[in-house]
Design a protein that fits this description.
The complex is a heterotetramer, with two copies of chain A and two copies of chain B. Chain A is about 50% helix and about 15% strand. Chain A is an alpha+beta fold. Chain A has three domains: about 80 residues, no CATH class; about 110 residues, Butyryl-CoA Dehydrogenase, subunit A, domain 2 (Beta Barrel), CATH 2.40.110.10; about 140 residues, Butyryl-CoA Dehydrogenase, subunit A, domain 3 (Up-down Bundle), CATH 1.20.140. Chain B folds into three domains: about 110 residues, Orthogonal Bundle (Butyryl-Coa Dehydrogenase, subunit A, domain 1), CATH 1.10.540; about 100 residues, Butyryl-CoA Dehydrogenase, subunit A, domain 2 (Beta Barrel); about 140 residues, Up-down Bundle (Butyryl-CoA Dehydrogenase, subunit A, domain 3). Chain B has eleven helices and ten strands. By secondary structure, chain B is of the alpha+beta class. Classes of the chains: A alpha+beta, B alpha+beta.
């Protein structure tokens, strides 16, 4: 039992660092530091740089472009990416639909989609949630009726992140209403250019427009775009939700944010913008967060190691999600507290954060509001607790 | 000891509540927020007609002689509606500075127009790069033979873009002082911004703005004392506003839990969510108690007043954050859309904590004073 | 609307203060300050002093020895008692069985019991909880079978506080098992000297022995000792549980404890027993508690005023219980933190706290452990939340 | 990076776990606690037979050369059993002082006897009226021609009443120093007390106790450095013990919730209680992570070691309090009886926080150092 990296792992870390120092464009790094909104083009550009290096999709099977990395290497890669302020790729492409097609797709689907997914030649979105079926995902109602070689889709999805940019959607649809609600769900790949699809943006409290409603009116999808068997979509979706347990806590990001808050504390104290009492309290709050974050980092490493070893850390992914999102949110609370009344003014979307003095002040409020979603999306923290209570505690 | 409203207070409450119900539903608020000015002149005019705008001014100055309880009643109801109009900026902040510091002539020129809804004002005090809260400023006012020349930069000026006149804090040889500065004076530049809570704010740049002798508000060097008094009143008002928001937000959340179905039952049947609502209710009740304390403290001696209000701000800062965050969480995704009320309530509660000293700031005041002094219920 | 006391109320307060200064025995005050265990004799002695003054049972109906006090006066009386370190009377006598007999008892029961209850000529205990029926009180199983003019009781009560001292018990027993479980419960007064009663003490984690099991083996109780009608005991018990909402938060006690912690802070800081950092943090913790306590004090005053006025503050008593017990517990946490390792040694029961230097240190741990019960007994805080959710929020 | 136990470590764990299961159930523990000494000599003898008492000492000194991970394994299992025997006081505290400071002769006279279960020792450091924690003391040691004369008063001496010899901290002209003092030396008075967690403590009064030259443990004036090292090891050990207690307490609580019926269903079916258990589980897992960090830090450079262990103590102080309090609350009345395990677990978790610096104390260490240094996973 030890926590040290091996020489090989340290060498790998240096390799990742060198690559990031050389290849991450300065303007992207700056945007990330200022917590500004990333455009689709920003994400695509970076993803292609990673893809050229072979690192866009490290968690995929090696034969489809993945990397044969150890858990420690995966951890190092994620941490270095975050500490270097590198954007995260599209989770829908890289963490969700890619692995699903690699595991459950036909050879034709793999050939058609995987390389394009890795390079974001196609931008994907996820069509799971529906009005009336949020945390109770299986109660979804969007219908897909078989008509010859096609499904005809009618219904509505909601909270579809970045549907406005998407070329494709992977969606759960109902092909059978007779049995248990988890049955009769089918997993389809839908070309967003198909006639009958309407996307309506939803403004969120952080001022963003990344959430959408997507309406389907007799949308025809070829049967060849079905993943796996009809009626087994729920199983494929569950597989997807259990994926990526090593990344779900977003430790690297939180560490980078904590480091930024520490820098701010020093800077503001030096400038006389914090009273001695405020400085002391802030330092205590930062130390408290740091303890929890260090603990969570080790918890995540234990989970990763257990996955690699004898397998199955039970409901560990849910624990990582709960504590990880709490810490992400806590970090944004500290920032908005520090911003104070100066943080009231919202930056205009076209405004460049870098052009503002104290860009962190302008970013504090939108970021605080935006991060409320992390304890809601992907199964609310209350649902995660239900899962742990049942799966791990047997309650 | 009496927690009952007088008949007049009850009538006041009913009339403001009716205004909110009839004229200020959530859709109406959204429309007002999306209008160019970010609020509604019609609603403002209604508030003038209801007598709200002259409420805290004395009758001899052209107001209605209302006290802390009357302002509490109004602010709580305005909170329920998440009202966007410049009540705090014009009536409580700038109006407060005028009440406490203005000459008879300065009052006469302004209070009747404020009460009639004709004069919009704003307090321009906060500056970039300083402490987050305090009665100090780096802007300067230089004495000239015929008046003053003001230079400085102000941020987070609530309703600054529509103000006809500003109360500006600036440093003279005598210390911090307040000045009445017309928004149209040469050298004044106003940059409108959207506030995250829907309340418009502005940056106000003063570039060698020449004002006359009559622009000095109160004594030269007496600005800090006036500001502290005004901040106390503003915090008492915000505490009441927060109670209105929190109570309404709890109502909205409980209604949602009763309606929203998941797993075949209303989600309000889940015990963990029920208990969360109870925790919210406890915060609402505790905050209401402190809003009453703050309102009744306004007529008490300075130390008592200051610390009671600090304690109230601690309670609503923490309680408001809890209620806001939990209301969003319990709603799930719909809680974070701009199309639904709770997200806006959450943001306004966030802003209320940030204004005029947050919970931590006021806790420090209590620590420095060695606690809340006894005696708000008779001498001890 | 105002928070000031009237001149009459201030005069009343002075009267209470003067009485307490004159009549509260020094040794009792000292024991209270040192948080030492009060003997039965201590409580009886003080109750009789109060009773001689007419203040032992102020909340009872005036015709049975109560006082026609306003809510403000009741509040003043409780607060002054706590601030003067006066013991609380037996809640079972004063707040529970007395008011029940006064309201539901027969004339014969009133004549026989009330004066003795007020003077603690009889010491009462409460026989409600049973093994398997804690928070779910109505599921109690102790049977009372009618046999002529007597009930024959068999079964067991548990957690019976101070049963070891008790002359009488008021108990809920089951006289009918056929209907809803709330029905068929009868409220009886049981002489603890009746043959067939066995009391077994239970040691609690604070080292105390005030909790007991009470076993009934063919215990015969005359029918004349029944309160009200057979089968309606649940209604009488509910009335009792809703009682005393003005005292449930124990604000006065908490204020006195907070004042003691403030004195300790000053003293320990002066003696160099707290670092500057510890002192600052303690002051912040005290300020935080004080804000919540002040808010709760006002909340309680509002509830008291509403009771006197248009009536019915809904589930307000439950709110007072939850927040009041949290604050009581918080205060003991602060004390045990301050005690540190010096607080490890438990005082022997016969040991005099006053004889110890730093008596507060010896008392810190037992008091901390003892106060865990306040969020459990009398309906756990979870049960209180259920009550509020249903009664006040309609969930 | 590797979180697996070696085969030897796995065997060690199994053997201690078996000892707890077979020989140290809750009823047995209660009997031991109620015995005059407050613990069991038989159990101690078993622990010697299992090789636990010599574990951390080097093989050349007569021990088994175990490191931080081995101690963690032992302490976690001892925590599950709420073991009362003087492992911490004899092996970790006094034994640690001997390991770090004793001469070859001093070691030879003691370590084999400790390992065999024949020598009980205790650390007498804490004093009344001082700070709650720190490597300082007011007791004095005066140099005489033939040795030293010690005077002072020590409290909270863990297992002090049964110790044959004390490690005593006292101030010489050179600074704080450590001394080996026989419990039977003239002038030593030991007052046994019950500790609230079941662990016996004692007050030790030193009234001009004359000791020989050979009583000095380590360098004259070198006591503080040794104590700090020993406290680090003790805190790492306590962190592991706390993890064992917390994990066991969660198990006991979950089992109770599955069994206990109310309102016609197991109370474990109530969602609010389920979620509370999940919150406890999260604390258990976070604490376990930090116990591992603490154990592995013992072989790292001082700054890293000290701050990692401080962070671990913060986590288990807070997590332990939460788990202990909630376990009692979820059990209801049975949780507060001395006849049931969780109440004892709660009390031991309380004591663990209080010993060698509580969560707040260690948080202050982190604040003073500017945070946990990076680098426990390779140089940064």
């Amino acid at each position: 039992m030890n926590l040290d990296f091996t020489d090989e792992e340290l060498a790998f870390r240096d390799e990742v660092r060198a690559f990031l120092a050389q290849s991450l464009p300065d303007d992207l790094r700056r945007k990330m530091i200022d917590r500004r909104h990333l455009e689709k083009d920003d994400i695509v550009r970076w993803q292609r740089i990673l893809n050229a290096r072979g690192w866009a999709t490290p968690n995929w099977p090696v034969e489809h472009g993945g990397q044969p990395w150890s858990p420690a290497q995966r951890y190092i890669f994620q941490e270095e990416m975050a500490l270097a302020h590198a954007p995260e790729g599209s989770p829908f492409n890289v963490n969700m639909i890619g692995p699903i097609i690699a595991k459950f797709g036909t050879d034709a689907q793999k050939a058609r989609f995987l390389a394009r997914i890795a390079n974001i030649d196609d931008w994907w979105c996820q069509g799971f949630s529906e009005p009336g079926a949020g945390s109770d995902l299986a109660s979804l109602k969007t219908r897909a009726d078989r008509d010859g070689d096609e499904y005809v889709i009618n219904g509505q999805k909601i909270w579809t992140t970045q549907a406005q940019h998407a070329d494709w959607m992977f969606a759960l649809v109902r092909t059978d209403s007779s049995g248990r609600k988890q049955q009769g769900i089918t997993f389809l790949l839908i070309d967003m250019n198909t006639p009958g699809i309407t996307v309506r943006p939803i403004e969120t409290i952080d001022g963003g427009h990344d959430a959408n409603e997507v309406f389907f009116d007799d949308v025809r999808v070829p049967v060849e775009n079905r993943i796996g068997e009809e009626g087994r979509g729920w199983d494929y979706a569950k597989h997807l939700l259990g994926n990526e347990r090593s990344g779900i806590a977003r430790i690297g990001l939180s560490k980078e944010r904590l480091a930024q808050l520490r820098r701010l504390e020093v800077e503001l104290s030096a400038d006389g913008r914090l009273t001695a009492g405020e400085r002391d309290r802030l330092r205590r709050k930062l130390a408290e967060v740091e303890v929890e974050l260090r603990a969570l980092e080790l918890t995540q490493l234990r989970v990763v190691a257990a996955d690699a070893g004898e397998g199955g850390a039970g409901a560990a992914a849910s624990i990582l999600k709960i504590k990880g999102t709490e810490l992400q949110q806590r970090m944004t609370e500290l920032a908005i507290e520090l911003a104070g009344p100066a943080g009231l003014a919202m930056p205009e979307e076209e405004e460049s954060g870098a052009a503002l003095e104290d860009g962190w002040i302008a970013a504090a409020a939108p970021f605080y509001f935006s991060m409320r979603k992390v304890s809601i999306f992907g199964g609310s923290n209350e649902i995660q607790k239900n899962i742990i209570a049942k799966a791990q505690l047997g309650l | 000891m009496d927690f009952e409203y007088s008949d007049e207070q009850r009538l006041l409450r009913e009339s403001v509540a009716r205004f909110i119900t009839d004229r200020y539903d959530f859709e109406g608020r959204l429309r007002a927020m999306q209008a160019p000015e970010g609020w509604s002149r019609d609603a403002w005019s209604d508030m003038a007609d209801l007598g709200l705008l002259g409420l805290p001014f004395s009758e001899e100055d052209g107001g209605f002689g209302g006290g802390g309880v009357e302002t509490m009643i109004v602010m709580e109801e305005l909170g329920r509606g998440l009202v966007l109009e410049p009540y705090l900026s014009t009536v409580v902040l700038a109006g407060g500075a005028i009440r406490h510091a203005a000459s008879a002539g300065q009052k006469q020129a302004r209070i009747p127009r404020i009460a009639a809804g004709e004069l919009l004002m704003a307090l321009a005090h906060q500056e970039p790069g300083g402490l987050r809260h305090g009665p100090d400023a780096g802007s300067s006012a230089e004495r000239r033979s015929d008046g003053w020349v003001l230079t400085g930069r102000k941020i987070a000026v609530l309703h600054g873009a529509t103000a006809e006149e500003f109360v500006v804090s600036a440093r003279t040889n005598a210390g911090l002082s307040l000045f009445l500065v017309s928004a149209s004076a040469p050298g004044v530049r106003v940059i409108p911004q959207r506030g995250y809570d829907g309340i418009p704010v502005a940056e106000v740049v003063l570039d060698e703005v020449a004002t006359g002798n009559e622009s000095l508000l109160g004594e030269d060097g007496g600005g800090a004392a006036v500001l502290e008094r005004v901040f106390e009143e503003a915090n008492a008002a915000l505490t009441a506003e927060a109670v209105g928001i929190m109570a309404d937000t709890l109502d909205v959340t409980v209604d949602y839990l009763k309606t929203r179905q998941q797993f075949g039952v209303p989600i309000g049947s889940f015990q963990a969510l029920q208990h969360r609502c109870v925790d919210m209710l406890i915060q609402v009740e505790q905050s209401r108690s402190m809003a009453i304390l703050a309102a009744l403290s306004l007529s008490q001696p300075p130390a008592q007043r200051c610390l009671n209000i600090a304690a109230a701000k601690v309670q609503i800062g923490r309680g408001g954050r809890f209620v806001g965050q939990q209301a969003v969480q319990l709603h799930g995704a719909i809680g974070i859309t701009a199309e639904y009320k709770v997200g806006h309530a959450f943001k306004r509660l966030t802003a209320i904590d940030a204004l005029f000293g947050d919970a931590d700031h006021h806790l420090d005041q209590l620590v420095a004073a060695g606690g809340i002094p006894p005696g708000n219920r008779g001498s001890n």
